[in-house]
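Deliverable D5.2: sample structural annotation.
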Amino acid sequence: MRLFFPFDYFLFCFFIIINLVTGSVLAAPTKTVIKLSPPPITQHTVELPLNEYHALAILALKKVSTSQVPRPYNAPLHSFTALPTNNNQLIDINNNNVRDDYERLLLTQYRRPEYVAMGVLAAAHWDRLAATHTQEDRIPLITAITLITNNIAINQCYYSLQQIDNMLVSPILHYFNTEQRIVIKQQSEEKLLRIIALSPFSITFDPQPCQRFTLLAESMLQTTFSAN
């Protein structure tokens, strides 16, 4: 026995299917906040200094995401409206205290939110380091030691992670990306080392350098929450 369905019934089913497909497309976000599908780290013994939860908390705090990065994020490289890079101008259109060209680089170069957050924390440290270049007030010994040991630990951490994840590149050369910025970095380090040289303290290498990022993250979050 054959079953016959009226034409109106087929139209009804067709529109139901179209609505379901269209609804799922419209419901999908047009732009992800952060790319969460990076290539996996190959060694199971590796632990990043920040987990995804704390990394996203840092990025939310600093308003760093692909949906909030300064325009024109998707502009062609040859576009005359592209944000300037490789100059000494401090441009921060979205006012989150992260230089725009550096912020865009973090979001385009790294796939892991943990790596983006590490780049943001490193930049906050490098900001403080560079600020000592023109600081006229006396720099306390503890500040000099902290900045120098942070510097060493950050470099060591990136180096150790690069031995395992060859997709990771330290963003330091993108932060100090002009001759003037490199000179400021070198002179700031020399200034701090002269302060330390006059003290009985010596600089030691941290056996777990990546944990310094954990301390920097805790300090940033606690400072912000206490200020609010």
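Annotation notes: Residues 11 and 182 are 68 Å apart (CA to CA). The mean pLDDT is 77.
The annotation will be released with the project's public dataset once the embargo ends.
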